[in-house]
Amino acid sequence: ILSEKKLLNATSLAFGALLSPGREIDPSPPAIQRDPSRCEKCGAYPNLYSRLTPVSGQWQCMLCQKINSSNGEYRPAGANDLHNWPELVSPVVDFMDAGSWRPGFVPVADSTVAAAPVVLVIDESLEEPLLQHLQSSLHSFLDSLGPSTRIGIITYGKTVSIYDLSETALAAADVIPGDVAPSQELLKMLIYGTGIYLTPIHTCLGVAHTIVSSLRPYSGNLREAARPRCLGTAVDVALALIQGPSTQIMAKRSSGNSHVLVCAAGPNTLGPGSLPQFENHPNYAYIEANSIKYMERLGRKARLSDTAVDVLCAGTCPVRAVTLEPLVKASGGVMVLHDDFGEAFGLNLQRSFTRAGGLRATLEVRCSEGIGVSSVIGPGQDASSDAAESFGREPAVALRMMSVEEHQGFALSMQLTSNFHDDYAYFQFVVRYTGTFQARITRVITVRLPVTTSVSKYLTGINPEAAAVLIAKRTALEAKSMADAAELRFSVDQRLKDIRSRFGPRAGAPPFPREITKLAEALFHLRRGPLLGSIVGHEDERLVIRNIFLQASYELALRMVLPRVYLFHDNGSFEAVPAYNLAMQSQTALILDHGTDVHIWLGHELCQDEKRNVVAFSACKEFVREITETRFPVPRMLTFKEGSSQARYLQARLIPAHDDPPYEQESRFPQLRELTQEQRARLKVKFVKTDEPSLTVWMKSLKL
User: What CATH number belongs to 118-246+253-341?
Assistant: First the structure.
């Protein structure tokens, strides 16, 4: 990083960090089963950069320079003895709370640990085709649950039906009105009544399947958007079931987050938080504002009971995502849109329930003096008051997280508060959470970066892809509407111009710094892609993609900004190539991975050879399964042939380079050199003339 405050803080280049607390690390970090030492001044943990005094066992904090006692712990006889203290040799370590540690399992006799419950909240207003897909996905989901998982089933439409899982031969439910919020008396009658609405799946699997099979398609004549759906009332009842009697709350502690999984095919149109049918309603803005407030209160209520509300939507009816998003965000859940209730929906249903790797988490960030954190984007809430421990200096960031999940990440923007005079800057990230087996784990990550006065060294040290994700998250945070997105596309252009004005041109160097050309390409994709561009049509889809991106881990966020293209070869291998339309060669197949969307494209010549086509398509499907095996949300997968109307979905996500000069094409897409002149000529003429600029034309228009 640069040592000069004025230059580093004013630059349009991002200075910050991308942190994925739940990311799997291979090999696993050392696990230390003892209480760690802490710096008495700033609360930092000892690490591989701490200076030791072997005689006394004292260690010096690299953040505040305070000399601390280790109570005689750190007394190595030599450098080779440091491995006895993993925190002094490894940049990442896990401290296990000795008081909560259980070696690898929870004893069966420990009845105080209850399996985390899940309540399915199902839309009743479905057409026959959607319902058939939903039933198939729900049957698979029920069969995938562990035997001790507690399950509840609720359906909603004009009323809310809470199914009694104690029945064995038929689907029976208690029905309550959906047009008003359930009263406390009514909820007490349900919870303390004779019905069993939440029970381990091994005791009710048969009746759960019977309930799913008994669902019937919508029989009225109202259009989809006008059908009565009391979603708010149904979620409120589901939370009451999870909370249960007060005696049960005191007696049980859950081994995981509770989940409410909402399967919706349309907007909330009845009862609390509902919206009018038409957006031209004279009081629509006022009603929408009240709906957002109600859903946010419901989400906070869910969070207080460690319950995540996930809303999984399907079909073509708009769900008015702007009112459901506060419910999902406040509870720590996710919202995903699907074309139907088929395979992708079923996988998301299963992964949404199993995704959390830790519970009741906190994140603390500490930096060297002179470095501050200006903003944080991610799935956390401020917890600075909770972090006021018995240390003289509070952390730069203190956040509460409902859970630690592999697909989640934080973007931390940083700045210098004064000119930096040391040779190195230090950063420490601390994540505390309760693991699957109730052990309290503290993961400590320590990073050291060199400080320089040389602009050239600074540019060389930048990770352009990480910088692109950090910039994209800061930009997408402001893109709340199509109008915002149009303005922000212009801001991307201005950002690149500002980088040029501050870091170029230098003697013998191109106008735009060569060290970060990958950043320019990524930002070009950003302004054309689903976050800022026009390839996503409906506001529901744009909002959902934006929210997924803002909470995504580095790997998922990078794919959503910078798509990756894989070219199929006849030997069964795949080659990663730049995301240009020059990859659309008729003799092969392509896979485009854009994070939340994966496309398989089959060339015209390939399709004419039936045997090659079958082999290529099978290989592509298997490769997609491998690269998305653990991804959440499960991406939407589309398959199409060259020349079909759907092929435009892929072409719109690729950089149009067919009109660039040949030397520019080969520079950007080296694989072209392997084609014959005839193949290159056929490739060029099949693209339609458009006004959309290529990356080269766009950069030249900005004089870069």
Answer: 3.40.50.410
The 3-state secondary structure of 437-493, one letter per residue: CCCEEEEEEEEEEECECCHHHHHHHCCHHHHHHHHHHHHHCCCCCHHHHHHHHHHHH
Which distant-in-sequence residues (6+ apart) come within 8 Å of 10 by Cβ? 502
Q: What 8-state DSSP symbol labels residue 580? A: B
pLDDT in tens, 402-456: 889 989 999 999 999 999 999 999 999 999 998 866 788 999 999 999 999 999 9
Tell me what pLDDT residue 24 has: 84
Give residue for tokens 């092929």: 647
Instruction: Provide the pairing of β-strand 410-416 with 16-19.
Output: antiparallel
CATH class in words for 35-89:
mainly beta
Distance in angstroms (rounded) separating the CA atoms of residues 356 and 537? 32
CATH topology of domain 5-30+357-453: Immunoglobulin-like (2.60.40)
**Cβ atoms 412, 365 nearer than 8 A:** yes
Tokens representing 115 are 């399996």
Q: What is the pTM of this model?
A: 0.92
Q: C-alpha 189: how far from its chain's center?
A: 39
Query: Phi/psi at 562 (nearest 5 deg)?
Result: -115, 95
The predicted-structure confidence for 94-133, as pLDDT tens digits, reads as follows 999 855 544 444 434 344 445 689 999 999 999 999 999 9
